[in-house]
Amino acid sequence: MSLFERTIVLKAFRPEKLSFAFQDYVLKRMGKFFIEGQTVTMETVYSDTDYKTPMIFILSTGADPTNQLLKFAK
């Protein structure tokens, strides 16, 4: 049974474990780079912005970039 087929079977019998199965699938098929969180600095983000390209934050639970943003602004 392939990794993808196991993920489908898992969805049928244990849907609460599906996110872990997806993470395992991506790790084995695409590599560690695609499941690790990427760290980025405000300097890097700011260099990619201009008057037509705003900086947009998409936050997850517990993420708060306010301090980084205020520190960068000073």
Which key phrases capture this entry?
single chain; elongated
Could you state the order of secondary-structure elements as H and E? HHHH
What is the number of independent domains?
2
According to DSSP, the number of beta strands is 0
Radius of gyration: 18 Å
Helix content: 40-55%
Strand content: under 5%
- Secondary structural class: mainly alpha
Average pLDDT number? 90
Q: In terms of quaternary structure, what is this?
A: single chain
Shape: elongated
Quickly count the helices: 4
> Which regions contain 5 or more consecutive residues with pLDDT less than 50?
none
Largest sheet: none
Euclidean distance between termini CA atoms: 56 Å
What topology emerges from the helices and strands here?
Layout: H1 3-13, H2 18-30, H3 42-47, H4 66-73
